[in-house]
Structure formats: C-alpha cells, structure tokens
Amino acid sequence: MPAPYARPPLLADRAFQAVTALAIIDVAAFLLQERTGPLWPDALNWLLLIAVIVPTLALCRRVRTDPASAPVVRRYWGTVQAGITLFVGVAALRALVALGAPGWLLAVSVALHLVGGVVLTWPLIGLPFSAGGRARTVGVRLDLGTLTFAAGLFLWHFAASAQFADDRVTASRVAAAAVIMGAGLNGVYLAAKVVLAGVDTFARRGLYWIGGSALIGGLGSAISFLHPHQPSGNLLLLVLPLAAFAAAVGARVQVVDTAAAARPRRASRGYSRMPYVAIAAVDTLVLYNHIEHAGNGILIDGVAVTLTALVVIRQLIAFRLNDTLLARIGVQEARFRLLVQNSTDMVTITDPGGRLTYVSPAARRMLGADPDELIGTAIAPRIHPDDRVPAARCLVRVIAAPGATATFQVRVRHTDGGYRWFEVTSANLTGEPSVAGIVSNARDITETREVRDRLSYEASHDRLTGLTNRALFSRRVAAAVTGAGPDTPVGIVLIDLDDFKNINESLGHAGGDALLVHVAERLRACVRPADTVARLGGDEFAVLFEGARGADLDQVLTRIMAALLEPAVIDGEPMTVRASFGVAEGHGGDDPGELLHRAEIAIREVKARGEGGIERYRPGMEARGAERRRLVADLHTAITSGQLVTHFQPVVTLPGGRITGAEALVRWQHPSEGLLGPGAFIEAAEQSGLIVALGAWVLRDATREAATWPGELTVSVNVSARQLRETGFPDLVAAALRDSGLPPHRLTVEITESLAVGGGATAGNLQALRDLGVRLSLDDFGTGASTLSLLASCPVDQIKLDRSFVPDGGSFAIADAVAQMARAFGLQAVAEGVETAEQAARLTALGYDRAQGFHFARPMSAADLRARLAGEVVVTATPLGHR
C-alpha cells in the first residue's frame, strides 16, 4: 500500500526562512518607528521591503519550475512572480524619491503599483468555483453575496466613511471613498473566490494564503493611498511586506504539498462557514452601534436584515441539497443491499479478533448455514486445519495496516461435514466508520480446484496404472540426489518387460493393459512407501530407491523378480512376467541426468544380451572409444562435404488431411553405409558438440527449401539443448530467414519440455525467437516436464503429443488431457506418430486439428515433397462411426 501522507516542514527551506525573518524585522521596524519616530533614513525602509520581496520571488520561481506541479499551477506562479517583480521597482522608485530624486518618480511608482496589482489580480479572477449543479452554484453565489455585503458595510463604516467625517462632500472625497470601497471589495471578492475555488491541482492551504495576500495587498494599498488618517510612517511599508509574506507562504505550501507522495483531498462540504461568520460580525456591529451610537445605524440595520435574508435563502437551498443527497444515498444503499444479497459470492465482515459481524445471504448456499447464526462466531474453527496457518498469516498482514488487502485460497467446512475451496480477497476497512472491520469477498472455486488438481495429476501420473510418469520421476530423481548427503546412497532401477510385444499381441490391448496394471501393483507391493515407482511409457518401469545400499537393493530386486514370476490371471489365463533390470547406484550430489543415463546404459546392455535378469552399471560399460571417435570424425566430414540431406514429413489437417507444412528430418548419405537415420549419429553429435553445426546446417537447408513451397506452408525444425544455450542462436535463425527469404511466421522451432524449463540463456533465446516472429513448439509433449505451470510460463504456440500417447485401442486419457490443456492455454495441438485411420479419427474426436505420421506420409526427400504438393493427395481420417 502507498506510504502514509507525510508533509515536509515549511521552515526546511532557506528562502522561506529568510523571508519569514525579514518580514518579522520589517513589521517590527515599522511598529517601533510608529512609537519612537524615524530611526534611520526612509530609503532604508524601502530597501528592507525589497529584501523581503527577493526571497519571495525565489519561492515563486521554485513553484514555476517545479516539474511535479501541474502546468496551470506553474503558469499561475509565473504570473505572480512577474507581478511581485514590479513591486521591486515600486520600492526602488520610492527609495530614490526618499533620497531626493525628482518627484515625478513618485507618480511613476504609483502607476507601477497599480499595474502590479492588476497583474496579480488577473489570474485569480479566472479560478473556477467548486460548484457542482445549479443549486450548489446558486448557494456559492449567495455565500459570495453575503460576504460582499458584510465586507462593504465594514469598509464603509471603518474606512470609506472617514472621508466625510466633517460632513463635507467633495468630488475628490467621493472618488477616494469609491476607490477604497472598490479596492476593499475586490480584495474580499478575490479572497473568497480563492477559498471557494475548486482547482484540485492547487494546494488548498496555499489557496488560503493567496487569498490573504490579495486581501492585504488590495485593501491595504487603497487605504494607504486615500485614507485621511494615516500613521506617521508610510502604511505601504507595513502592507506590502505582509502581502509578500502571505504570497511566500502560499508558494512554499504549494511546493511542500506537491512534493508529498499523496496529498489527501479534504471531503467537500455542502455549506461554507464564511457567510455565518459574516452575519455574526454584522450582528456584533449592530450591537456595538446601538450601544455606542457610532453612526450609520440605518445602513448597518439594513445590511443585517439583507444578510439574514440571504442566509435564510442559503439555508433553504442547503436543506434542499441535503434532501436530494439523502434520497440518493437511500437509493445507493438499496442498490448495494440488493447486489450483496443476490451476489453469487459471499461477503463477510469480521472484527480484528476474527469474529463475524456481517455475513451475506450467499452463506446459506455456499456453506449451508444461516447467516444470522454465523454472526458473532469465529471463522477460524471452520477453516481446514492444513489451511489455518497460511490463512492466519494473510489476515495478520491485512489487519496490520488499514487499507491493506490480500488474496488467498482456503478450505472452509460446509454444514454437511465436507470442505469447499474458496478464493478470498480481504481488505482492512477498520478505518471506515461505516464498516469498522475486515471485509472479505469469498468465491467458491471448488470445481476449478478439482479440475486443476485432476489435470495436474494426470499430467504427472500414468493414467492406466496410477504410477508416477517420466516427468515426475525425473523430478523425484533430481530432488533425491540434491537433498541427500554425499554418503547417502541413491539407486535407480529401470525395468523393461521381456517379450511384452508378443504378450500384447496375443492378449490384445485390453489384456496388455491389465498385465501392466498387474505389474504396477506387484512393484508397489515389493518396495517401501518412501520409494518411487514410475511407468515411463509402454512396458518400461522405473524405481527410485533412497538410502538403500547394494545388498538391500539386491534383496528388493530379487523380491520383485519373484513377485512378477507368480502367475497372474489375465482374461482368465494365468500369466507370468519376466523382466530385465538396469541398475545405477550413486550418492547425494551426483548429477541426476547422468545417473539416469547410467541406468539406461545398463538396461540396454541387459536387453542386448536377451537373457533378462539384472545388470549393474559399471564404469566403461558404454565405452566404445575408437568407434565413437571414428563416427564423430566421419560426421564432421559429412557436415562440411555435403553428405547430409534433409527429408520432410508432412503435417496435415484433421480430418481433412490437407498438408499445412512439414517437419525437417536430417539424414546422412554415408559413402559406404548408405542412407542413415538420425538414430545412427545424433547421440554422437550431441556428445561431441557437433550438434550445433549439424543443427545450423539443417536450419539453413530447411528454410531455403520451405521458401520455395506455395502459400503459407510451414516448416518445423528440431533444436537441441546445446543449440539453445548458444548466445548467438537467435542471430543464426534470423540470418537463415533473411538469406532464404522465408517469413518468420512460417518457421516453427521444436524444443523438448526439458529445454522449456531450462532458464538462463535458454529462456532468453526462446524469447528472442518469439520476438523475431518465429513460432515455438513443445515436442514429445508428455514425456518430459509436462506441467500446467510450464504451459503458463513458456512462450510456445504449439504442443506435439508424443507418439507414445497416441490412442491405439487402449486408454486415450493422456491424449484427451493434452488436448484440453492446449485449448485452455490457447495453443495448437499436434499429434505425431499417427499410423492408422482409427487413430486419426480418434484424435479428431478429441479435438486435434493437426497430425503427422506414417498414416499420412513417411518422411520424403525435398523433391518428392514438392511433387506431392504439386498434385496433393489428401489422406483423411475415417470417422469413428464409419469404420
């Protein structure tokens, strides 16, 4: 919340300190000389006036040049500065006359004085009244009339009438009285105008001082020029310093209030005290006149009666405004009551102690409780025990500061014994007398939470077996090695069912699924509750053991093997399962990716033997140094000598089968081994770092070829982690697009989920690609870090369902969940690995509008793709109801 309003002290400014001190000295000198007579030459008094004006000009200049002030404020104070500057000339001419200069300079100073008064008066006349509506405007004008009548009476009685004290009436005396009355009424009018002005950009305290300066300067100057009874000294030496000081205070207040972070706005009243003060003053004058018989009795009584009539009229207008306001408030209260009572959200007010003082009728529907019965009870006991501490923390922050707000989610007990999820927004309105409590608005989000939790669970668990999936298993492995000490063992076991393909074909997909569920149950039964069992996909399982050493691990694996060999009845037939186990053992602090990699090496080794059983990773197991070095050298030659070729697999629409683009797939035209797929060399490229040069070649070749395709066909290029970590990768993409002429939106860069959560340079490069206009796609979605937070934070346009999740007669829950998440986040969903018309039809029914796979087209050369585009053959999805 914003910091509370803090107003800097007025005297913190040196120029204001100077003008205050000099004004005090000037006034004191004037009063002293009135008692003792002149103490020094009169010219020195005028120079002392100049000394008061100079710091006043400095304060005016600060407002005029203050960037925090509104333009209208700066213009006004610029005019004030110009007007006050003229009075420096007035004082200087008076000083020269006092030193013996020609008398005509005195007339010049009077003319300059009048011009300065006009310059200072003019901007005040343009200030608007703070009136809203016709009735309020009339009321303000009546207030101004009341003040004018009262001021006119006092000016006449105490100033202008002195011109005729000896009952002689002459033209000069009438003119002098008129000038005094005019100047005085003008000063009163300007002062009232400033006080009643409704200019929000001006500091209100400053407006009061501006009005005071106008009243002092205008009325005082008129009296000093024309009143027959003058002090022994020149009255201007008292009037002008006081007017300058009032202007200086106004300028300083404007700067101080503008510098404050949040100047509080005073609530406007429907009335002003000024007319009542005026009539009280006139009534006092009436009493004084009747006691002392000071003269002007008829005039004073007449003005008193007139003012009384004006105030009565003003009061009637105020009553009318009050009635209108009360009616409006009644309508607003009724509207607010209806809104609250019919709102789907529950509104509550609690005191700082947590007891309910108001509960809206929605509580009956949301909690099953009568709102009246809840009033006076504490809300905390109704909150779920697991949510009480975080909810209390939020409420403590709200209670600590008036105006503070907080939003949090909490479970609240229903009268049926269950709990409902609420999203609560609380605000501290203890400072509002009409509320005096903590206002909370609660919205029922139970269904939203259930859907979110279900989608999150399905994104991190295998739908068939309920086991952890690959993404969550990888995170568990990372957490285990990160949180464990260096002496704490961490073991990973990968399990692959032997001959499961034949079993699945003999039993059918339903039987195969039942067997997988049976395996999952046996695995869970054989391990500790703290161990993590996962299904990585297909017939691949994994177990994470934390704190289990070699001998203990062997005992568990032996138990698992024995449990799998126990016959299980599947579709009425007893079945036994044999499996291969790849084991990697490490300790806290090891690299989780390397630990998983070792387990994969071990499982590949045992599968290659074809004997099943258990294989532990041993250092050097993967070492085929000479072969790998030869492969890397040959690959380097292939990149530089043109042995690489790009094939393209079309991406088509569902259900129409129209080609919308293609995915670029690299092949190696090996001189002796023929055309090699990426499986033969990509791993070596990744390990050696050649993947960067290889990826750059594929990017340039793919964009160059795609630029020749008709229409808006797109090309997708896979990008590795090593490429995305290169700081110049976005520049490389931009250069490929520029050289090929391919528009950026026709290029899609495919990344894996693990890259999307990489952070650092990877995140920066992904954003740079988006800034270029290139589209991003999450490839093999569902096999990596598939989470809702990933989709919400990663700047992708498309997700590609991994081929392992494409419906193949079994469960299609993952495919359905991915399609729902894509729609929820506004992303395009593409299914890859579609091999049959039935799969295409199922994916169409789930909402996928893009797909690729052997059912539509196998990867083909650039020339073959161009030929196919020239005479496009459409492969459609067979509708589910027409198979």
UniProtKB/TrEMBL annotation:
Origin superkingdom: Bacteria
Keyword set includes Membrane: yes
Keywords assigned by UniProt, alphabetized: Membrane, Transmembrane, Transmembrane helix
Transmembrane residue ranges: 44-64, 76-97, 103-126, 138-159, 171-195, 207-227, 233-253, 297-319
Record-level GO BP terms: regulation of DNA-templated transcription
UniProt-listed SMART domains: EAL, GGDEF, PAS
Residues annotated as domain PAC: 406-457
SUPFAM superfamilies tied to this protein: EAL domain-like, Nucleotide cyclase, PYP-like sensor domain (PAS domain)
Domain EAL positions: 628-873
Chain ranges of the PAS domain: 332-388
All copies of domain GGDEF, residue ranges: 488-619
Classification via InterPro entries: Biofilm_reg_signaling (IPR052155), EAL_dom (IPR001633), EAL_sf (IPR035919), GGDEF_dom (IPR000160), Nucleotide_cyclase (IPR029787), PAS (IPR000014), PAS-assoc_C (IPR000700), PAS-like_dom_sf (IPR035965)
Stored PANTHER family: BIOFILM ARCHITECTURE MAINTENANCE PROTEIN MBAA, DIGUANYLATE CYCLASE DGCP
Protein name listed in UniProt: Putative diguanylate cyclase/phosphodiesterase with PAS sensor
Organism this protein belongs to: Actinoplanes missouriensis (strain ATCC 14538 / DSM 43046 / CBS 188.64 / JCM 3121 / NBRC 102363 / NCIMB 12654 / NRRL B-3342 / UNCC 431)
Organism taxonomic ancestry: Bacteria, Bacillati, Actinomycetota, Actinomycetes, Micromonosporales
